[in-house]
Amino acid sequence: MRSLIPVAPSECVDPAKFVLEAISEVFPVDKRREKNNNDLGWGYVLVLESLIPVLVDPVIGKLRLLVTPTVKEKAKEIAETWKTSLEERGRIENVKTPDVHTFLQHLVTFGIVKEEDADLYRKLVVSSAWPKQMPKLAVSIGLGDKMLELISRGQQLDAVHFTYKAGLVNKFLPVPLLKAFLKDARKVAASILEDPNNASQAAHLVARKEQSALQSVIKCIEEYKLRAEFPP
């Protein structure tokens, strides 16, 4: 199915309208009577991503999207509905990452990013930074420089992924970020050992924390070929 989804919009008379109707059952608000545990968020994001090359003007390019005024207005209404639904879900931190991803991709796909909503976008990106596609979305909506907030929140690993995906490696060096991440992990481990409430299982918790941190850093080193920066 994953291979068939990107093809569907290109075979439609009105691909933009088709995509809006295709995802309307769950976005901007999930209207399904019976919900299962299968997360289909990836499918809706893939549909929205596959629509972009179909909408690009063959002459002018991405500066002009081939979307009718009616469909674009509908896309704006959907975005506003999703924003309104945030109040029902509680704080931004409570919104599921797939929902955030779909919303931001919706904005980019239909070219309806609003400057006055930049603060909302920033909060959404920072709270859901881990998907690999998020850095490119952040750059597309004008938030490529928001990694400083990730760093200040102790999300150095997310910041490293952002640097590479957003093409900002020269501005935010990955090695110091990874070293800072390990340093913070050691501080957390030390605080666990000092907590009398953890006396019975402190050693086990510390070992798990440190192992998890090291595995995450090793994965980054291998993914971005940084082995030379970390001599044995």
From TrEMBL:
UniProt keyword annotation of Cell membrane present: no
The keyword Metal-binding is annotated on this UniProt entry: no
InterPro entries: Frigida (IPR012474)
GO annotation, biological process: cell differentiation; flower development
Domain of life (superkingdom): Eukaryota
Cross-referenced Pfam families: Frigida (PF07899)
Keywords: Developmental protein, Differentiation, Flowering
Annotated PANTHER family: FRIGIDA-LIKE PROTEIN 3-RELATED, FRIGIDA-LIKE PROTEIN 4A-RELATED
Family (UniProt): Belongs to the Frigida family.
Protein name as it appears in the record: FRIGIDA-like protein
Organism whose genome encodes this protein: Dipteronia dyeriana
Upper lineage: Eukaryota, Viridiplantae, Streptophyta, Embryophyta, Tracheophyta
